[in-house]
Design the sequence.
């Protein structure tokens, strides 16, 4: 017996040299050394390349110790987990009188182990302090259990169109790469839960930006690849974002900027510097906020939820600035129209005093002129026959001594469509430039109503989309 144990003791004894599993394990492949220094003889017909039997069930158990971080740009999640894999090995027996035996971790290469494959796994590192956190145990009921503590990085496909209302659902599949469902099936098995400081089991982990929840999917899942169907045990990871920070950092300030822009409607239009400074400063602040949010937020194929909000707020402020430009143009047009009306009055007076254009010199001298004395000054008036001439003056700016008095022609298109359009446009511009500020009063009512309507539609639409995404599953 001692001759049999000496080579094995040399492998694990201190100072016995380094352990080379590829060479030395092959030399002692017929036996396993466990804690009490007893030699465990493997069956002579045992093969580590053949599963214990047809339709072998492999049980997966996992405890998440910590969520180290979520990398949105690389779409990765880093976890500290304790993973347990167990299966029934009917070809192995525990010595009588023992409930289990602990086997050295290196000797897992001597027995059959499932080729566990994690589909979304990027990297995996076994935790180690004085030695690796890994164990191999054989129970009296012929169950082999492998437990490891590891840090794993999972690839999770994320969609940030609803950012920051997005909810990420990641499905992680544990399956076999080589064995089909006829040989190996994977199922979840409850393991001892990990309790927090307060003694309550942790169902979720709160990060600065996310609330991470883990749920094991008990239903059967199949992966189709290679030569057939492969069984898989699925772990659902749900990442819901903390919305409070975004409400305070982005949504609330942008809403206040829009509300402040409405104050410009209360400023007298003639005070151009005060009103322009208010609107331009608000507009530039929203543009800067939009640029900051776009730079610091993850990329998406479409406009993100928060970008739609900021762009809409920017448009509201821009429309307020555009409304002020219309008011300024209307004021300028109104002043020009006032001067034109004065010129028309002077031209009408001159036309009344002048003889008709079709009369000869003698007829002009005999044409009576009507008028009324005002303050000792005679004020001429146009007669009914000269109404056509008055209409011509109403569409032109005529000075007192303008030569147009000698070249006016009758036009039959005054009542055309284009004339009506021009008349309506003139009335609209004059309404915008009215000194009593009619357009500002209407804008002070319309802008808040439109913003409230937009806010209701925005939150109703995106919250419903976020609720739908929360109850959906994305398969990786």
Sequence:
């Amino acid at each position: 017996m001692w001759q049999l144990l000496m080579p094995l003791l040399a492998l694990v004894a201190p100072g016995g040299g380094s352990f080379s599993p590829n060479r030395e394990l092959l030399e002692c492949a017929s036996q396993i050394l466990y804690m009490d220094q007893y030699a465990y003889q493997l069956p002579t017909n045992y093969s580590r390349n053949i599963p214990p039997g047809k339709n072998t069930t492999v049980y997966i158990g996992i405890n998440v110790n910590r969520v180290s971080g979520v990398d949105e740009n690389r779409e990765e999640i880093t976890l500290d987990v304790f993973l347990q894999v167990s299966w029934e090995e009917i070809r192995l027996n525990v010595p009588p009188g023992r409930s289990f035996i602990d086997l050295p971790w290196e000797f897992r290469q001597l027995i059959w182990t499932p080729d566990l494959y994690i589909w979304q796994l990027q990297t995996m590192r076994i935790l180690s302090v004085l030695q690796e956190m890994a164990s191999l145990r054989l129970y009296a009921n012929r169950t082999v259990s492998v437990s490891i503590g590891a840090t794993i990085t999972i690839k999770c496909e994320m969609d940030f169109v609803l950012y920051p209302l997005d909810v990420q659902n990641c499905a992680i599949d544990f399956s076999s790469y080589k064995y089909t469902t006829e040989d190996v099936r994977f199922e979840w098995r409850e393991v001892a839960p990990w309790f927090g400081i307060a003694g309550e089991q942790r169902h979720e982990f709160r990060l600065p930006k996310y609330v991470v929840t883990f749920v094991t999917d008990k239903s059967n899942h199949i992966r189709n690849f290679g030569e057939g169907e492969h069984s898989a045990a699925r772990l659902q990871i749900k990442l819901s974002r903390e919305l409070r920070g975004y409400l305070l950092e982005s949504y609330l300030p942008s809403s206040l900027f829009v509300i402040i822009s409405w104050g410009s409607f209360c400023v007298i239009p003639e005070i151009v510097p005060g009103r322009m400074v208010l609107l331009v400063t608000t507009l530039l602040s929203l543009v800067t906020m939009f640029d900051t949010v776009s730079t610091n937020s993850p990329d998406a194929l479409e406009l993100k939820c928060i970008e739609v909000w900021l762009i809409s707020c920017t448009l509201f402020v821009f429309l307020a600035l555009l409304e002020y430009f219309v008011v300024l143009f209307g004021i300028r047009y109104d002043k020009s129209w006032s001067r034109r009306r004065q010129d028309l009055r002077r031209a009408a007076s001159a036309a009344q005093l002048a003889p008709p254009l079709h009369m000869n010199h003698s007829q002009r001298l005999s044409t009576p002129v009507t008028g009324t004395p005002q303050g000792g000054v005679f004020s001429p008036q146009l007669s009914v026959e000269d109404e056509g001439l008055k209409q011509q003056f109403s569409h032109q700016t005529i000075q007192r001594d303008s030569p147009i008095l000698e070249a006016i022609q009758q036009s039959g298109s005054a009542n055309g469509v284009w004339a009506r359009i021009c008349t309506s446009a003139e009335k609209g511009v004059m309404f915008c430039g009215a000194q009593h500020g009619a357009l500002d009063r209407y804008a002070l009512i319309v802008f808040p109503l439109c913003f409230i309507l937009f806010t209701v539609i925005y939150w109703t639409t995106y919250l419903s989309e976020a609720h739908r995404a929360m109850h959906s599953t994305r398969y990786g």
